[in-house]
Amino acid sequence: MNLHHLPNIISVVRIFLVVPVVLYILNGDYLHALTIFVIAGISDGVDGFLAKRFGWQSRLGSILDPMADKLLIVSTYAAVAWVGLVPWWLWATVLTRDVIIVCGGLAYHYFIGKFEMAPSLISKLNTVMQIALLVGVLSQQLTQIPSWLLQGLVFTALLTVLLSGLDYVTVWGKKAMYSYKKAHSK
């Protein structure tokens, strides 16, 4: 095995970790769910660090990494919403943002051309806040966490979901318009 494949392998492992996280949540085993979720969350930072630090970025990695993130986060939100730990509207907001981003990316690729995903700072902050909220919600089942802290995390996660979704639509909408005008001005 070449080490330059390591970030992609870590992303694939993160995808496989989604199932046990969800099953543990649905079965009320929050300690195991939290443990695996934290490992999966840390792996997101590790694969990105390795890819950038050693120049191991790849087209496959630019697809696998965000796909693994979206599967982990959306599935975990669905599970915690199902068992009543977060409101359904929060899961619906997270899901809607990701569906818009994925559909927009596919439309861009199909109608405009190939692109490399480059998450913005607000998008990275959004991922951190969503993970922090999920860690907080799962931790709340094991120990007492102040309700004001969880409410703050809910508000902050919601805000970053909305802002990052708006950022993606704005930035990629402008890029699409620029590419369209450039292609049709000849």
Quick summary:
With 186 residues, the chain is an all-alpha fold. It has helices spanning 6-26, 30-54, 59-82, 88-111, 121-140, 147-184.
Describe the structure in your own words.
The protein is mainly alpha-helical and 186 residues long. The protein has a single domain, classed as Four Helix Bundle (Hemerythrin (Met), subunit A), CATH 1.20.120.1760. Helices cover 82% and strands 0% of the residues. The chain contains six helices and no strands. Helix 4 runs parallel beside helix 6 (147-184) and helix 5 (121-140) runs antiparallel to helix 6 (147-184). The longest helix is centred in the last third of the chain and has 38 residues, at 147-184. The chain starts with 5 loop residues before the first helix and ends with a helix.
Which range best describes the helical content: under 10%, 10-25%, 25-40%, 40-55%, 55-70% or over 70%?
Answer: over 70%
- Could you tell me the number of beta strands? 0
Please report the first level of CATH classification, the CATH class: Mainly Alpha
Looking at CATH, the homologous superfamily is: CDP-alcohol phosphotransferase transmembrane (TM) domain
Please count the helical segments: 6
Give the DSSP E fraction (strand runs of 2 or more residues): under 5%
Shape: globular
What CATH architecture do you see? Up-down Bundle
Tell me the number of structural domains: 1
- Element order: H for helix, E for strand: HHHHHH
Mean pLDDT: 90
Largest sheet: none
SS content category? mainly alpha
